[in-house]
Write a structure and sequence with these properties.
Blueprint lengths: L1 E4 L4 E4 H18 L4 H11 L3 H25 L5 H27 L3 H33 L20 E4 L4 E4 H18 L4 H11 L4 H26 L5 H23 L3 H24 L16
Antiparallel strand pairs: 1-2, 3-4
Helix pairs in contact: 1-3, 1-9, 2-3, 3-8, 3-9, 4-6, 4-8, 5-10, 6-8, 7-8
């Protein structure tokens, strides 16, 4: 069954989109990520223009994050206090990202920036997560306990002023790096069409030392609010949100996220981080390959946005 996407100007099979939504929704719920780092390249591979894919995938991430957040909140695993502080920076970052998206699109550099950013971010984060997870798994296999951190032995950025105690996450840190992380996630999410979870989860675990399951649950809350904001702002400033595409992806994402959240809670933290690292690195390598591979069509006609 084929449907026509009015903004993307592309006919696609509805069952293909639905299957993509369910699969990425499952990944979103399992790892606590918005799924945009996976869905956006998949849509581009399918033929959807990058500006439309980036803007429209926000609807899928909002739906799957909403479903996953409810699942985790019922189990009281979301650190709402930490999420609100992250959102204070995330909302500002989202607005900045949408404005940067608008400027880059006008000058015809958006596609290149998205591709390079994906390769750099996914390759770096995926590699670091795999290395750390393998070390943890080797320690576990050898029966060696992880080295205990001395109380108060925090990095310098956690000892900055304006400290706050987050009881759910069992941390006492400065809110300055927390707000900065939120801003970065909101900016990248609206500019690249990623929920930011694949960056936020490692940041919460390795920089703020939040427990893994709490990081996963709280990242979904931040993804939900920032992606809803991105949908509204992209609709106003860029008019690139395809409602038909977004609706189909939302249905699939909501279904898949419920099953993914349950699967994620039954896995060990080390295994969860290792699988997420593999997935992130694989997507980064795929995007990199597409940048150097010979295109199917050597010539294309595009509209020069800067001339408008």
């Amino acid at each position: 069954m084929t449907i026509y996407l009015p903004i993307a100007e592309l006919p696609v099979n509805i069952f293909t989109l639905l299957a993509m939504g369910i699969a990425v929704g499952f990944v979103s719920g399992m790892f606590g990520v918005g799924g945009g780092f996976l869905m956006t390249p998949l849509l581009i591979f399918l033929g959807v223009p990058p500006p439309v894919a980036v803007a429209s995938v926000s609807t899928h991430m909002a739906a799957s994050s909403f479903s996953g957040t409810l699942n985790y909140m019922r189990r009281k695993l979301v650190d709402v206090q930490l999420g609100l502080v992250l959102l204070s920076g995330g909302m500002v970052g989202t607005l900045a990202g949408v404005l940067a998206f608008h400027v880059l699109r006008r000058f015809g550099q958006l596609d290149l920036v998205i591709a390079v950013a994906y390769v750099a971010l996914l390759g770096t984060v995926g590699t670091l997560m795999i290395v750390e997870s393998v070390r943890a798994l080797l320690r576990q296999w050898r029966g060696v306990k992880a080295p205990l951190r001395r109380p108060g032995a925090h990095p310098w950025f956690l000892r900055m002023p304006f400290k706050m105690r987050f009881r759910q996450s069992r941390i006492y840190v400065s809110i300055i790096p927390v707000v900065t992380i939120g801003f970065s996630i909101g900016f990248l999410g609206s500019l690249m069409g990623v929920g930011g979870g694949f960056l936020l989860v490692p940041a919460l675990i390795y920089l703020l030392r939040v427990p893994t399951i709490t990081s996963v649950a709280t990242s979904l809350l931040l993804t939900l609010v920032t992606m809803v904001s991105a949908i509204v702002l992209h609709s106003i400033f860029n008019q690139t949100v395809d409602a038909v595409l977004g609706l189909v992806l939302m249905v699939g994402g909501t279904i898949g996220a419920q099953f993914g959240a349950r699967a994620g809670q039954s896995m060990k933290a080390e295994n969860l981080r290792f699988l997420l690292g593999l997935l992130v690195l694989a997507v980064g390598l795929r995007v990199a390959y597409d940048q150097i591979a010979r295109p199917a069509e050597l010539y294309a006609v595009t509209i020069d946005e800067s001339a408008r």
